[in-house]
Specification:
This protein is of the alpha/beta class. The protein has one domain: P-loop containing nucleotide triphosphate hydrolases (Rossmann fold). It is 39% helix and 26% strand. It is built from twelve helices and ten strands. The strands form two sheets. It has a six-stranded mixed sheet with strand order 6-7-8-3-9-10, with helices on both faces. A hairpin with a 2-residue loop joins β4 and β5. α4 crosses α5, α5 packs across α7 and α7 packs parallel to α8. It is globular, with a radius of gyration of 19 Å. 39% of the residues are buried.
Length: 266
C-alpha cells in the first residue's frame, strides 16, 4: 500500500508592491492506495495549488509531503520515482496534449522514459492502455488531439497518466471542460480504474454532488484552509461548517441526483 502524507502545507505567493498572498494555510491530510478523497472548494480556494505542490510543479512555503514516510527528493532518481508513483490528469484536455503529436506518441513517451515495459512491448502496451480507457486503438492510435472529441482527449490523458503504472492519481477538475453529456462517462471510467488498479485518487472539484458520488472522504477548502473533512455522506448530509452548507445548498440535490444508487457511490 502506498501512502501520501501532507503535513502542515502552507503556500505564500509574493505579490510585487502588495506583500504576499496566503494561498494555503496549514493543510494536512493522508491519501492511501484504494482511497478517493475529494478536495472541494470554489475557484481561488487553493485546490489547484495543492495539486501543483503534489506534482512538484511548485514548492510549498512550509510543510511536508511524504511518500511512504519519506520526504519528496529534490532531484535525481528519487524525484523521478516519486513522479512515476504520482501522476496528474489536468483540467483541460485541449491544452494538456501536444497538438503536433499523435496519441501513440503521448502514451509511448512515459512508457519509454520510465522503462515500464521492454522496448519490443511498447506498442502492445499503448494499445492495452487505450482499450483500458475504452478507446479503439485502431481508430485512435495514429490520430492527433484535434481529430478527437473532448471526451476522447481526456481519456487519452488518463491513459497517459496511467502509463507509468502509478499508485496515486491527482485529477484536477477532470471533467469541467467537457460537455455535460459526457462528464458522467469519464467520471465512471475514473472510478472503475481506481477500483481495478487500487489507485489512491485526489479528486479536485467544485461539485459536492459528484464528490459524494465518487469519493470515500470529502475535504472542503475555503480561503486556503480545510474547514471540513470527513466521510463523504457525513459531510454532505450533516455539514458542520457554514461554508460547506452554503456549497451544498448551491449544488444540485445529491439525494435526488443519485437516487437509487448504492449508498451514493458509483
Amino acid at each position: 500500500m502506498t501512502t501520501l502524507e501532507v503535513r502542515g502545507l502552507t503556500k505564500r505567493y509574493r505579490i510585487r508592491g502588495s506583500g504576499s498572498l496566503l494561498a494555503l494555510d496549514d493543510v494536512s491530510f493522508t491519501l492511501k492506495s484504494g482511497q478517493t478523497i475529494a478536495l472541494v472548494g470554489q475557484s481561488g480556494s487553493g485546490k489547484s495549488t495543492i495539486a501543483k505542490i503534489l506534482t512538484q510543479l511548485e514548492r510549498a512555503t512550509t510543510g511536508d509531503v511524504l511518500l511512504d514516510g519519506k520526504p519528496i527528493p529534490r532531484r535525481g532518481r528519487g524525484l523521478r520515482h516519486y513522479r512515476q508513483q504520482l501522476r496528474m490528469v489536468f483540467q483541460d484536455p485541449f491544452a494538456s496534449l501536444n497538438p503536433y503529436h499523435t496519441v501513440r506518441h503521448h502514451i509511448e513517451r512515459p512508457l519509454e522514459l520510465d522503462h515500464v515495459v521492454p522496448r519490443g512491448e511498447v506498442d502492445a502496451e499503448v494499445r492495452r492502455l487505450l482499450e483500458l480507457v475504452q478507446l479503439d486503438p485502431t481508430q485512435t492510435i495514429d490520430r492527433r488531439p484535434h481529430e478527437l472529441s473532448g471526451g476522447q482527449r481526456q481519456r487519452v490523458a488518463i491513459a497517459r497518466a496511467l502509463a507509468s503504472r502509478p499508485s496515486l492519481l491527482v485529477a484536477d477538475e477532470p471533467v469541467s471542460m467537457l460537455d455535460v453529456s459526457i462528464r458522467l462517462g469519464v467520471l465512471n471510467l475514473l472510478a472503475d480504474l481506481q477500483r481495478q488498479s487500487d489507485l489512491g485518487v485526489l479528486y479536485i472539484t467544485h461539485d459536492l454532488a459528484t464528490a459524494r458520488h465518487f469519493s470515500d472522504e470529502i475535504m472542503v477548502l475555503h480561503h486556503g484552509r480545510v474547514v471540513e473533512h470527513g466521510p463523504a455522506d457525513d459531510v454532505i448530509l450533516h455539514p458542520k461548517d457554514e461554508y460547506t452548507r452554503a456549497l451544498r445548498d448551491a449544488s444540485p440535490d445529491p439525494e435526488k441526483h443519485f437516487a437509487g444508487t448504492d449508498g451514493g457511490r458509483a
